[in-house]
Amino acid sequence: xxxxxxxxxxxxxxxxxxxxxxxxxxxxxxxxxxxxxxxxxxxxxxxxxxxxxxxxxxxxxxxxxxxxxxxxxxxxxxxxxxxxxxxxxxxxxxxxxxxxxxxxxxxxxxxxxxxxxxxxxxxxxxxxxxxxxxxxxxxxxxxxxxxxxxxxxxxxxxxxxxxxxxxxxxxxxxxxxxxxxxxxxxxxxxxxxxxxxxxxxxxxxxxxxxxxxxxxxxxxxxxxxxxxxxxxxxxxxxxxxxxxxxxxxxxxxxxxxxxxxxxxxxxxxxxxxxxxxxxxxxxxxxxxxxxxxxxxxxxxxxxxxxxxxxxxxxxxxxxxxxxxxxxxxxxxxxxxxxxxxxxxxxxxxxxxxxxxxxxxxxxxxxxxxxxxxxxxxxxxxxxxxxxxxxxxxxxxxxxxxxxxxxxxxxxxxxxxxxxxxxxxxxxxxxxxxxxxxxxxxxxxxxxxxxxxxxxxxxxxxxxxxxxxxxxxxxxxxxxxxxxxxxxxxxxxxxxxxxxxxxxxxxxxxxxxxxxxxxxxxxxxxxxxxxxxxxxxxxxxxxxxxxxxxxxxxxxxxxxxxxxxxxxxxxxxxxxxxxxxxxxxxxxxxxxxxxxxxxxxxxxxxxxxxxxxxxxxxxxxxxxxxxxxxxxxxxxxxxxxxxxxxxxxxxxxxxxxxxxxxxxxxxxxxxxxxxxxxxxxxxxxxxxxxxxxxxxxxxxxxxxxxxxxxxxxxxxxxxxxxxxxxxxxxxxxxxxx
Length: 736
Fold this sequence. Notes:
By secondary structure, this protein is of the alpha/beta class.
């Protein structure tokens, strides 16, 4: 023990003062540690008997791994946090998919900063709040935890979250890699070729590494026959040798470690969150030479170096309990929810009678609500529910919530607002018929999608030798499979609304032509069987604790619906890749989402990047520069409407020599303008989607083809007016 504190604190002070670098500080600590203490760095500190209590404990305290009290080493103190801190009563932000719909990395970085502050205030130093798995299919149960279907959007947003979180705590990115199905996540084997792996499913992970990610969490699934905890090809060859990642890797929880020695050799540093396989097997393996001391020291060094560097550079001021769910964080949650709401449809109600003015409605769109409205009907199964998202590991329990109904009543104190109790479509239609306008709030909840906490296919051998090959193994596996059939959440069996929700929409729309449908969900919902019956349609996501106020603000026109879709909504589910939630083996290629629709010639119901506002905007590409390292585009944006509003400038490229060009997002920038105003916006461009990686040399080179670039407000259907991508043009010379 040093004279002025612990050995660990002394190492942190030395790094902060510039007397040691992170490697030297880690080496100094390792010299002081016993073999038992070194091995204890490599798994969770909690005993195996706490397994059944994990869901309860997760919401009450951090889970600690690698603490060494003798030397003052605090260990990693874990909290989940994709939509806020899961410990205590913390701010519930909109789910990750909702925040992806803001297309605003600067806002996401602020959310990350707030999550980091509250994580630290709750006693943790390590937050698994950055989920960048790609949405291959919207039926994925945990779609709400990711940033959508596009690698560039996902990479930009995930990097912003990473930067914000790590100001106060270590940022953990998950789930590495190719995790995008829930029900069979413990068993599924993902097959993928080199091009799709490196050019589609990994770029966003690398973006977060480049943004400073301190740690990655492995996925449960297998890739090319190997579980991710023992997948040295990805954990060492790619992550460390090719990308230069210097942080540490943890397992997904409990069932994410399959071999104590092989996982350590492959590059998985910490088994989380309990003392299971490694506590049981590594001491003997080290004594026998089955695992070398050098391998143990390698992981110990990564863990200690990362922790010391973080503590030496994190925000100096320690957050307090007053920062948790503070007024500032609630306002940020409200802003994020407001900017996430996507207006998909907003038409006039031709020929209908407006009860507020007793006149025939003109061509004015139904939204925002008429300020003279006197009677509003708010119906639907989800109208009075805050509905924050699934009830899995990312669940946040805020001190208060606001439902859509509560938000509207607060925003419209002088308006009579009625609702219908129960699921009856007849009662809802009666309420709608008596009102000036009807709002139907329907969609999904934790029973329809989310993390499946109990899942068939778990490797129960991790629980002990009696479960590896003994008589308890088969019954326990059978019990897990049986239980998985009855738990809520998991992958969706359909992209349609519940039949009762569709019946409700049709009944209300028939009773009142001034009907607005609000969808609550974590990913795409098919609308083909009913959307032509309603003039206005929005998706409000799982909007967090302030979601009801955000929705009311958009519906009343106090704020703009600033969201844009982070995925495509097709007209037919057959236009998407096949999704089998019971599959034990799947093939992932480079055809999914909007790109699959483009390649096959299908028109989307709502394309990737789509969203309406309450004003109109024009985009004109006026110049660009581009090479294999990236570039920028200059776009003149004009608000041609009569009120202030926002737009997302989106830059796409495609090989226009193809019969059906496939749009590739290169960059985007959100901008807000007053009516009649115009501004030139600079958009940073990512070269990745135009490059290909040679598997042998690992070098990147341009894809063949005639590549053109276009500025658009959503993924383009036509490439008319596009200009040569790789030919720089001076500002003001281009137009489209």
